[in-house]
Specification:
elongated; 3 domains; 4 strands; 64% helix; alpha+beta; Glutaredoxin; 9% strand; 276 residues; 4-stranded mixed beta sheet
């Protein structure tokens, strides 16, 4: 799967339309309670469309009548999805897509949005747990290889997620890690990185990765958060990682911006100047 930001033209417009419909559907009094089910259903529909190429091509064929495309989707999925999810998938079949694979990619993206919305009172915890899960997968090659092993069944790999994360993490976190394992992103790590961005967008935040040589105090992090929020014009969530190799100081990565005030960076710059 490609990141939603990589969708272009008609596909980007269609995703925006579906995102608005999802937000409206989950915005009512029962929206949060329904969000987890909707997320599961949208993910299942996305995987079905990925597998069934004939259905996917028909559902996205702009030469066919939109009512026929929507009706086909409803006929295939009736009784398998919640009403909200079915309406979204049927709506997706009426929209234009730059490539047929963009429709299931968009539904997979929306499944993450719905799952994030299922934990509205734990947004910071969810963001922290997704960041921690990504770090564990990145730093534990044995686990990473086991989760990516296509010789293992999907059930076996999702059980492994339960063994590693299930007893400590939010249900939404565990669900998203399982999606990262069984979905269509190139790697689990890439999926989890994208999920963090989606979670931040849902809560109108930006995510900053802060690298320090040793743990820093809450007061210093609060000052940094306020400064970044002022600079970028929206709330900023800090993901802090400790890396002794930076020696001292702090590196902040937010989107494509990198603010590197680490001792190691200053030493590298001094070496370059001496060599020049």
């Amino acid at each position: 799967m490609v990141a939603s930001s990589a969708l272009r033209g008609a596909s980007a417009e269609s995703l925006a339309t579906l995102d608005e419909q999802l937000s409206a559907a989950l915005g009512g009094a029962d929206g949060t309670a329904d969000a987890a089910r909707v997320g599961d259903d949208l993910f299942g529909a996305a995987m079905l469309l990925q597998r069934e190429s004939a259905l996917r091509r028909t559902a996205t064929d702009a030469s066919l009548d939109v009512d026929a495309r929507s009706g086909l989707v409803r006929q295939v999925l009736e009784g398998q999805l919640s009403a909200t999810a079915l309406d979204l998938v049927a709506k997706a079949a009426t929209l234009r897509w730059t490539a047929s694979r963009d429709m299931p990619d968009a539904l997979e993206h929306l499944s993450v949005v719905a799952t994030v919305r299922s934990a509205p009172d734990a947004s910071d915890r969810l963001a922290d747990e997704l960041f921690a899960a990504a770090a564990i997968v990145r730093e534990e090659p044995g686990l990473r290889d086991a989760l990516a092993d296509s010789a293992r069944t999907a059930e076996d790999r999702t059980r492994l997620v339960d063994d590693v994360f299930g007893s400590q993490a939010l249900e939404a976190t565990t669900v998203l890690v399982k999606r990262a394992v069984t979905g269509t992103y190139r790697t689990v790590g890439v999926a989890l990185d994208e999920y963090q961005k989606i979670a931040a967008d849902v809560h109108a935040e930006r995510v900053a990765v802060v690298t320090v040589a040793a743990p820093v105090g809450d007061d210093e992090l609060d000052r940094l958060r306020r400064a970044l929020t002022s600079q970028y014009g929206r709330d900023v969530h800090l993901n802090v990682q400790v890396d002794a190799s930076v020696i001292g100081g702090m590196r902040v990565e937010i989107g494509d911006d990198v603010i590197d005030g680490t001792v190691s960076a200053r030493l590298d710059e001094a070496r370059r100047r001496l060599a020049g």
